[in-house]
Write a structure and sequence with these properties.
Keywords: Signal. The chain is mainly β. About 0% of the residues lie in helices and about 45% in strands. Strands 6, 7, 8, 9 and 10 form a 5-stranded antiparallel beta sheet that branches. It has a 4-stranded antiparallel beta sheet with strand order 5-31-30-29, with no helix packed on it. The protein starts with 9 loop residues before the first strand and ends in a 5-residue tail after the last strand.
Length: about 400
């Protein structure tokens, strides 16, 4: 089995981002931004952006940073793919945890932020099928709809090409959970997956849009395609829209959804082409523009984004490729802000010190008090939690 790289952005000398402007279908031009207010010289892999030094807690917008559990007291050897949500009782996080990714002992653990401390991560569900068969769990996603119980989506299966979506719910803000339910099937994609990595969004009319993606194998090749699972009845039934890309020009997965004041929706996606890709919808997610490159790099790593209450957009991502000098790949993690989803300013560096497995698979939300909460995989051995004050950006 092999994977394609359709756009030859990368070279031995690094990524050749020579253009300052990319034309994005449906969303207009996507323009790079180099922190004009500070007149800093670009220092990143693209040659277009200035990346500031690693942020310090208590300075600027970074209010807090800690590991959810200490490195010398881990529930399992490895952890990955965190998610978080705000409930009536506070912030809740979940992640998959076990010996290592793909091991059958990997389950989903949940931790609560109570009185400023994270509770011990308890396993709430696993992939046991019967007395002799157990599959790993993958990519949990927490979501609190406008009405109804807290939802925890996750995947079960031997690998991302053969997994399927599952759902458990909680009536008490994540303290106890229902029995698992399989999400179902659809002719366009096969098993429903739910939100594949990043949180759904719920529109004013109650419509829930779960950003998702599939990894299909054909003739020994694997194609990555983005789709959406949309519910108008609080998750009782799901309509599949897409896939919206052919998996040829862009191998794209793991979209995150931004909402714009004019009613448009925008997704930002991980790709194998060295860039974050985007697509736009002006009909509540029923159709999407042709996928296009943004000006931001991507080392084939997960991202997440959120639209703030004030209309600005925050993106947490690895501002790098697999080329060039360290920190590269997943060894650097950044925050960028945008007024319009097109021009991005990478204003904060969360991590830039290389380690064994990097800093990856971030999740980001804004709580009712206006603060921004982020979790991400820390070297595959813990989950890091940070708090940002967006009024200081």
């Amino acid at each position: 089995m092999w994977y394609r790289t359709k756009l030859n952005f990368a070279s031995a000398a690094g990524l050749a981002f020579t253009a300052l402007t990319f034309v994005g279908c449906g969303g207009g031009e996507t323009t790079s931004h180099t922190n004009d207010k500070d007149a800093k010289e670009p220092n990143d892999i693209t040659g277009n952006y200035y990346l500031p030094p690693k942020a310090t807690v208590g300075e600027g917008a970074l209010l807090h940073a800690e590991l959810i559990y200490p490195l010398d007291n881990r529930p399992t050897p490895q952890v990955h793919a965190s998610t978080l949500v705000e409930t009536e009782e506070g912030i809740v996080a979940a992640f998959f945890s076990g010996t290592h990714e793909r091991n059958p002992d990997v389950g989903i653990r949940v931790s609560h932020l109570e009185n400023g401390e994270w509770t011990w991560p308890e396993e709430v569900v696993n992939g046991v099928q019967n007395d002799t068969l157990r599959y790993p769990c993958w990519n949990p996603v927490l979501f609190q709809p406008q009405e109804g119980p807290l939802m925890l989506f996750y995947k079960v299966g031997p690998n991302p090409r053969d997994w399927w979506g599952m759902l458990i719910t909680s009536e008490d803000n994540g303290k106890t959970w229902s029995s698992p339910v399989k999400l179902g099937e659809d002719p366009a994609i096969g098993p429903l997956l739910g939100p594949v990595k990043n949180k759904p969004v719920q529109l004013e009319d109650g419509t829930i849009i779960s950003p998702s993606s599939i990894e299909r194998e054909r003739d020994g090749d694997v194609f990555w395609q983005v789709h959406f699972e949309i519910s108008k009845d609080q998750g009782e039934t799901w309509q599949v829209v897409g896939p919206i890309n052919d998996g040829e020009t862009f191998d794209a997965i793991q979209p995150s959804v931004l909402t714009h004041e004019d009613g448009k929706l925008q997704v930002l996606c991980r790709t194998r082409q060295g860039v974050i890709a985007e697509s736009w919808s002006d009909d509540k997610g029923q159709s999407w523009s042709e996928m296009a490159a943004t000006s931001l790099p991507n080392p084939n790593a997960g991202t997440d984004a959120v639209t703030l209450a004030d209309g600005r957009h925050l993106l947490v991502y690895n501002h790098s490729t697999k080329e060039g000098e360290e920190p590269k790949g997943r060894n650097i993690l950044n925050l960028a802000i945008s007024e319009d989803g097109k021009t991005w300013d990478p204003f904060m560096t969360l991590e830039n010190e290389p380690n064994n497995a990097g800093y990856s698979y971030p999740a980001i939300i804004q709580s009712k008090d206006g603060k921004v909460h982020i979790t991400y995989t820390y070297d595959r051995i813990s989950v890091k939690y940070v708090v940002i004050d967006p009024t200081k950006i």
